[in-house]
Design goal:
By secondary structure, the protein is α+β, with helices and mostly antiparallel strands. It contains 5 helices and 7 strands, in the order ααβαβααβββββ.
């Protein structure tokens, strides 16, 4: 008898888990974005690889901005730090890169392809810096005098350059 009473409970649990999974994959669930915790390295800079490592050693991930709602949450967070009030520009590493295949950008923290079209005009351009260095990692950039083209948009840069970076995680 106890065995048959457990079946309806299991069915309910599975239905709830399926609904939660569907909600987690819905990029328009703004409440989830508000629950993220961010870390901004406003006092030091690292290259992309070291920034990835820094975030992971603290149980976080390098930033992924997959839609306008996530972008707005990041802008709100950065505004709360006061950094953009005291600095004219911001260049910060995100997890997007095309290290695996040139021109195919993916978020390294989620494995998803970058589909949110938030690139600055003419970017990504894979600018060749020297015979061995191209631009394969993405930054979030803001420049107060740059207009819409530099209003928290994406740009590809050499992964070895040092920039500030933003880590993120979901709250517990």
């Amino acid at each position: 008898m106890a065995r048959f009473g457990l079946l309806p409970v299991c069915a309910i649990v599975l239905c709830v888990l399926a609904q939660l999974s569907a909600q987690a994959n819905d990029d328009n669930t703004f409440a989830v974005f508000r629950q993220k915790r961010y870390y901004f390295s406003d006092s030091f800079k690292l290259n992309w690889f070291k920034a990835m490592e820094y975030c992971r050693t603290r149980g976080m991930f390098l930033l992924s901005v997959r839609n306008p709602q996530e972008r707005e949450a990041v802008i709100e967070y950065l505004g709360s730090t006061g950094y953009t009030k005291t600095h004219k520009g911001l260049w910060a590493w995100m997890s997007a890169n095309d290290l695996g295949e040139e021109g195919e950008f993916y978020w390294s923290t989620t494995g998803e392809r970058v589909t949110y079209p938030n690139w600055s005009e003419t970017e990504p351009n894979d600018f060749k810096i020297d015979d061995c260095t191209n631009e394969d990692c993405a930054i979030l950039e803001y420049w107060s005098e740059g207009g819409a083209n530099y209003n928290y948009t994406f740009n590809d840069r050499s992964c070895m350059r040092e920039f500030h970076f933003i880590c993120e995680t979901l709250l517990d």
